[in-house]
Amino acid sequence: MDAVWDGLREALRLIFHGDAELRDIAMRTVVVSGSATLLAMAAGVPAGYALARSRFPGRTVVLSLVNTGMGVPPIVVGLIVWLMLVRSGPFGSLELIYTKRAMVIAQFVIAAPLVMGFTAAAVQALPRELPDMLATLGAGRLRTLWLLAREAQLGVLAAVMAGFGAVISEVGASMVVGGNLANQTRVLTTAISTETSRGETASAIALGLILLAMMFAVNFVLTLAQQRRAR
After folding, report:
1. Residue 13, Cβ neighbours under 10 Å: how many?
2. How many folded domains does the chain comprise?
3. CA angle 73–39–185, rounded 5-degree value
4. Rounded to 5 degrees, what angle do the CA atoms 1, 20, 189 make?
5. DSSP annotation string for 10-59
6. 223 contact partners, CB below 8 Å, separation of at least 6
7. d(Cα 196, Cα 188) in Å, to the nearest integer?
8. pLDDT band at residue 55, thresholds of 50, 70 and 90?
């Protein structure tokens, strides 16, 4: 318990003294994970909708691949992206390895199946006759898509929360493709790993508390929007 209280005091000290390194690490975490989540939303929500409403040969296989992707260990994702981006890999000439962009790519690969799978499940839960009903009432194609998205909003917001929570809390993929370079690619999770390996327990706990507070703040806003929609 002493270590926890020491970590809490260290967290408060770092926050209220405006520690520059902590600010950079926290902002880098927000930028990397936020960008990955937004990209996952841009790709995963339309793909999830299409997967839920389309009927084609092999659809069950595709859904199974998406559901499998939702549970792939981040360290495996990091390894695959590393193999693609390392200098000897197919995209090595882009020189993305050990950069924030490589971390965004890896986190996108982690979040996209979650967003797609949750969105597909939310859309599938809607009444199958709803699109035809909307069309009968005069809604055009785009209007129908918009109304269906609104009806599935609770599930879509849950998809965003799942995707963001998965990427901001992962450490394996970020460590593998980002390298945990100080002042360049170090984020809160990799900083916690580094401080723990150094025996700096108080600093590690402080960083962990800050990460939890950040996750709570984002999820609180999304949950507030979700519950307002539910009412």
Report:
1. 13
2. 1
3. 65
4. 50
5. HHHHHHHTT-HHHHHHHHHHHHHHHHHHHHHHHHHHHHHHHHHH---TTH
6. 157, 161
7. 12
8. confident
Q: The pTM is what?
A: 0.87
- For residue 152, the enclosing domain spans 2-230
Q: What is the CATH number of the domain that holds 77?
A: 1.10.3720.10
Cα 100 from chain centroid (whole Å): 15
C-alpha to C-alpha distance for 184 and 178, rounded to whole angstroms: 9
132 has pLDDT over 90: no
Q: Name residue 222's amino acid.
A: L
Q: In the chain, count of helices (H) and strands (E)?
A: 11, 0
How far apart are the two ends of the chain, measured CA to CA in Å? 41
